[in-house]
């Protein structure tokens, strides 16, 4: 099967799988790729939408529009007969199993458990030739995925064992091996991908065994996006023949220590990409102090602070002012307590209460954090989201503008999150009648997103349409002024 996969990847995509001693399997290019070019597309072996009490989704295409619950199992939803038919061979079996489950078991049915049930059902149907097996769609690809089970901590092992026993109860097959199911849960934890929409909002989870061969870098040359359930890997820059294809597994806005911790905890490796090998070097220390450290006491100084062992405080590397640890701890405590209250208010749907609290959190973070702080940026993102929900476009634009310099600092020129923030800022400017500024930002959004998202998706067509409208409006205003 591996030889067949190699042949197909080489013939259809210009790719080859190699095994390196320190990295395991890797995906390399056998030709040049241009920015924005599709490197690889893959449908999921199995996928499942997120469980959301506020909004259910079609099990096949993940849309939330015009959906109806399956009349038999009352668990799964579909948007129409086409998706139901596409999923029917697998859902017919799952439906029978779910219909027999007690109500309390249905409640504890997480997306991960459903994904595992579907994994075993699909393997069974492919073994029985009910569902066809292809080079890019077969259980052997899942079998070859790394589980890291020997490195998993005891608490997580117990959780996997509990989830495996629930899968066993649902399937009721005599030849099932609980240990193997638990190991497959470990495989899902480090190989399954979060399926997102074009604006990177999570919709569900999918297992893409060929995409899973691609390794991580905090400075990737490619990006993984989704069109429906289809996973698409695009080149973000020119990738010469013979290069390794690299995507990012984690949020790359963060200090090297933060990124390394996230990768070690979930994926069990230490990254040695060009960004991570700088750990502890002068530039890396400065970046960490800006992204996750404190601001100078002098509000006109934008210097970063480092720990001063002699004064038991933090010293500004630009103006030399020392900031006491007691003051920092006091503000940190207040900020933490207020953040927890604000988060709870937002989760409970108390939007205006949450807005007031997050404004207080922001005020404390402005006192505490460097202007390039990730924490402050995240708070401003939440404020932006709340204000947009409340349709307070003017204040929303203020916060969107405040996030842009930090986005430009933490994300490379071509990064979907950076492009999406330009898009949001462009839309807000346009809503408020700032046409010239809207055109500038929407153009910046297009320049980034046409590479990460392509140009043919409904989302990109809408963005390109908005830009055309804004340009038409600007030229109309100009011709009106000329007439006057």
Task: Report on this structure.
With 484 residues, the chain is α+β, with helices and mostly antiparallel strands. 51% of the residues lie in helices and 13% in strands. The protein has 16 helices and 15 strands. The strands form 6 sheets. A 3-stranded antiparallel sheet has the order 3-11-10, with no helix packed on it. Strands 4-8-7 form a 3-stranded antiparallel sheet, covered by helices on one side. A hairpin with a 5-residue loop joins strand 7 and strand 8 (202-207). Helix 6 (154-171) crosses helix 7 (178-191), helix 12 packs antiparallel against helix 13 (393-410) and helix 15 (435-452) packs antiparallel against helix 16 (458-483). The longest helix has 26 residues, at 458-483. The radius of gyration is 25 Å and the shape is globular.
Which terms summarize this structure?
484 residues; alpha+beta; 3-stranded antiparallel sheet; 16 helices; globular
Strand order of the largest sheet: 3-11-10
Secondary structure: number of strands: 15
Straight-line N-to-C gap? 73 Å
Largest sheet: 3 strands, antiparallel
Q: Indicate the radius of gyration in whole angstroms.
A: 25 Å
Helices and strands: which structural class?
alpha+beta
Low-pLDDT stretches = none
Question: What level of helicity do the residues show?
Answer: 40-55%
Counting H and I runs of at least 4 residues, what is the number of helices? 16
């Amino acid at each position: 099967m591996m030889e067949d996969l190699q042949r197909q990847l080489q013939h259809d995509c210009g790719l080859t799988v190699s095994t390196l001693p320190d990295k395991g399997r890797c995906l390399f290019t056998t030709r040049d790729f241009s920015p924005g070019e599709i490197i690889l597309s893959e449908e999921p072996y199995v996928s499942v939408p997120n469980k959301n009490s506020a909004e259910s989704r079609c099990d096949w295409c993940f849309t939330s529009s015009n959906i109806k619950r399956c009349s038999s199992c009352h668990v799964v939803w579909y948007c129409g007969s086409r998706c139901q038919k596409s999923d029917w061979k697998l859902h017919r079996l799952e439906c029978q199993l779910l219909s027999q489950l007690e109500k309390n078991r249905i409640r504890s049915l997480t997306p991960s458990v459903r994904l595992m049930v579907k994994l075993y059902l699909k393997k069974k149907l492919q073994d029985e030739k009910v569902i066809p097996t292809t080079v890019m769609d077969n259980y052997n690809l899942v079998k070859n995925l790394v589980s890291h089970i020997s490195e998993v901590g005891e608490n997580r092992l117990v959780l996997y064992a509990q989830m495996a026993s629930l899968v066993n109860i649902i399937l009721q097959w005599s030849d099932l091996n609980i240990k193997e199911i638990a190991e497959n849960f470990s495989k899902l934890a480090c190989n399954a991908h979060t399926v997102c929409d074009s604006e990177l909002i999570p919709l569900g989870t999918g297992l893409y065994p060929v995409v899973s061969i691609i390794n991580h870098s905090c400075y990737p040359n490619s990006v993984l996006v989704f069109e429906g359930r289809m996973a698409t890997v695009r080149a973000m820059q020119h990738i010469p023949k013979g290069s390794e294809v690299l995507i990012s597994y984690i949020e790359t806005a963060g200090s090297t220590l933060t990124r390394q911790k996230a990768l070690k905890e979930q994926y069990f490796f230490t990254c040695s990409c060009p960004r991570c090998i700088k750990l502890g070097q002068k530039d890396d220390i400065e970046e960490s102090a800006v992204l996750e450290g404190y601001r100078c006491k002098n509000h006109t100084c934008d210097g970063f602070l480092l720990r001063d062992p002699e004064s038991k405080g933090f010293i500004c590397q630009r103006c030399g002012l020392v900031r006491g640890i007691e003051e920092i701890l006091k503000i940190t405590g207040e900020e933490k307590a207020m953040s927890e209250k604000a988060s709870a208010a937002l989760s409970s749907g108390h939007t205006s209460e949450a807005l007031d609290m997050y404004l207080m959190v922001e005020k404390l973070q402005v006192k505490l954090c460097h202007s390039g702080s990730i924490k402050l940026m995240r708070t401003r993102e939440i404020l932006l989201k709340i204000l947009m929900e409340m349709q307070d476009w003017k204040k929303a634009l203020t916060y969107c503008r405040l996030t842009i310099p930090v986005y430009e600092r933490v994300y490379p020129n071509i990064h979907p999150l950076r492009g999406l923030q330009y898009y949001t800022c462009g839309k807000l400017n346009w809503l408020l009648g700032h046409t010239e500024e809207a055109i500038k930002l929407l153009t910046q959004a297009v320049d980034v997103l046409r590479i990460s998202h392509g140009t043919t998706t409904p989302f990109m067509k809408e963005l390109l349409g908005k830009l055309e409208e804004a340009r038409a409006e600007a030229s109309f205003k100009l011709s009106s002024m000329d007439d006057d």
